[in-house]
Design goal:
The protein is mainly alpha-helical and about 325 residues long. It is built from eleven helices and three strands, in the order E-H-H-E-H-H-H-H-E-H-H-H-H-H.
Length: about 325
């Protein structure tokens, strides 16, 4: 917004335009989005309740899973209700400060989710490579401290984002071709230099995404070496089986995340905007939807306790 002496002030609001090029089918697109959101709410709330209710699940692996479920719930709730309002009621306006708050929570929760996935990989590493010391290494105080450290890392690294955006001058359009306030989508509307924003975004991606992926890769390399050295075929299958659900969660989380990250920076002119925004939404919605299903199917203890709970035992 232009004012006197060629100075600029932040816009009062942004317009979230939904999925560009697919405005006519927003209502139809809302159906799978809404269905997935309901499944994520029911699945994750049920999983958290089950882990809290069943004492047999009060173990590190399941406590980390409960953390993951809570973060998944918060992540999709930060964006999906807003997207559904755009699809159903054309409520596209979002206050400038509300946009910054949403941006902070979206990136903060996804950063924490990445950290929890890393902790779950380390949990599997200790369980398979040091089974006799598992209970003494991953005690409840250690789990609590690891969870708190992961949460603080995700939150503290995201605090500068709103301030970096607020210092920018916005003299161009206030229309964001997205369903929620993503950092890069917002800063690209600025008429000022966004070099600092881009550099800090890459730094955060390095400190969270790349660091976590490296830790996960090292953990599973060590796990693979330990499993291959087992003489029993049944023992190898059991060890691989305990990791299947977690590997699925990693794939579902990181593949769309990296697609979104690289598209923003390098594929803007080659990837259709509608595909980019759909994947960006799935990046926040797929993990909360699929993780409870995958863990419920692949993890025997959870599956047995769900059946037990449904039977009222």
């Amino acid at each position: 917004m232009l004012v006197s002496n060629n100075s600029y002030v932040p816009p009062q609001f942004f317009i979230l335009n939904g999925i560009p090029g697919l405005e006519r089918v927003h209502v139809w697109l809302s159906l799978p989005f809404c269905t997935m959101y309901i499944i994520s709410l029911v699945g994750n709330l049920g999983l958290v309740y089950l882990i809290h209710h069943e004492e047999s699940l009060h173990r590190p692996m399941y406590l980390f899973l409960a953390m993951l479920s809570l973060i998944d719930l918060l992540t999709c709730t930060t964006t999906l209700p807003n997207a559904l309002c755009i699809f159903w009621f054309r409520l596209k306006e979002i206050d400038f400060n509300a946009c910054l708050v949403q941006m902070f929570f979206v990136h903060g929760f996804t950063g924490v989710e990445s950290g929890v996935l890393m902790l779950m990989a380390l949990d599997r590493y200790v369980a398979i490579c040091y089974p006799l010391r598992y209970a003494t290494i991953l005690t409840n105080p250690v789990i609590a401290k690891a969870g708190l450290a992961t949460f603080l890392r995700g939150v503290l690294l995201m605090i500068p984002f709103p301030f970096l955006v607020k210092r920018l001058s916005f003299c161009q359009s206030n229309v964001i071709s997205h369903t929620y306030c993503d950092h890069m989508s917002v800063v690209k509307l600025s008429c000022a230099s966004i070099k600092i924003n881009v550099i800090y975004g890459l730094l955060v991606a390095l400190l969270i995404g790349v660091f976590d992926i490296c830790c996960i890769s090292v953990s599973y390399t060590m796990i693979l070496r330990a499993v291959v050295s087992l003489s029993s075929t049944d023992a190898r299958q059991k060890a691989f089986g305990t990791c299947t659900a977690h590997i699925s969660a990693i794939i579902v989380t990181y593949v769309p995340a990296f697609f979104t990250f690289f598209t923003h920076r390098f594929g803007e002119h080659t990837i259709p905007p509608s595909l980019h925004i759909i994947v960006a939404n799935l990046y926040l919605l797929l993990p909360p939807t699929l993780n409870p299903v995958v863990y419920g199917v692949k993890t025997k203890q959870i599956r047995d306790n769900v059946i037990k709970l449904l039977r009222g035992e």
